[in-house]
Amino acid sequence: MALVLVDAGGTNIGSVRYALQRLGVDAELSADAAAIRAADKVILPGVGAAGPGMARLRGLGLVEVVRSLTQPVLGVCLGMQLLCAHSEEGDTDCLGVIPAVVRRFAEVPGLRVPQMGWNRLQAVREHVLLAGLGADDRAYFVHGYAVPVGGYTLATADYGGPFSAVVARGNFHGMQFHPERSAGVGARLLKNFLEL
Questions:
Q1: pLDDT (tens digit, 9 = 90+) per residue, 93-128?
Q2: What is the DSSP string of the chain?
Q3: Rg of the chain (C-alpha set)
Q4: Active site residues
Q5: Mind listing the pLDDT tens digit for each residue in 119-134?
């Protein structure tokens, strides 16, 4: 299986590659459009802000490349948010393959923004990406912006209200949390993506 990690400048690329190696897959890190198009599966990692993330994709000439992919694609953390239509973070137009606007967490007494820590995943519909997910399984999140719940939502988490933790629309999938830092739960969900 040819798996490409899009070299979009995310600081989590090394840890995502290592998590994939533990699952027996060596991912190629590439910003080359031909290599990305030819891959069996593509992962768009990301840590940071929406504006610089989209600026890097534009600078590399990868916006239309990613939008046009037909193989399974997984956005991780910021990568998931970049799959959406727009982000309030920096008033940024994103890739538009998930019909959602990414919004900053509301200020709620007792909850710090960004959210940093473990949060329970709650499946809202069946999908092969969630195979083996238990009712009390938790994942590790670090984010100040979130995708609202919609028809694309596979699983939610709650931080002052529910938000999308896992999404899917067509061949595009996203995980708001860091599967590479989410122990056995993250490894299981990454493995599910690899088996799509």
A1: 999 999 999 999 998 899 999 999 999 999 999 999
A2: --EEEE-S--TTHHHHHHHHHHTT--PEEE--HHHHHH-SEEEE---S-HHHHHHHHHHTT-HHHHHT--S-EEEETHHHHHTEEEETTTTEE---SEEEEEEEPPP-TT--SSEEEEEE-EE-S--GGGTT--TT-EEEEEESEEBPP-TTEEEEEESSSEEEEEEEETTEEEESS-GGGSHHHHHHHHHHHHT-
A3: 15
A4: 77, 178, 180
A5: 999 999 999 999 999 9
pTM over 0.90: yes
Region for residue 158 given its phi and psi (left: phi exceeds 0; alpha: psi -120 to 50; beta: otherwise): beta
Q: Among the CATH numbers 3.40.50.460, 1.10.10.10, 3.10.129.10, 3.40.50.880, which is that of 3-194?
A: 3.40.50.880
Question: Residues 135-141: what's their mean pLDDT?
Answer: 97
Q: Which token pair is 76? A: 């991780």
Kindly report the backbone phi and psi dihedral angles of residue 125, in degrees, each rounded to the nearest multiple of 5, phi listed first.
-155, 155
For the chain, domain boundaries: 3-194
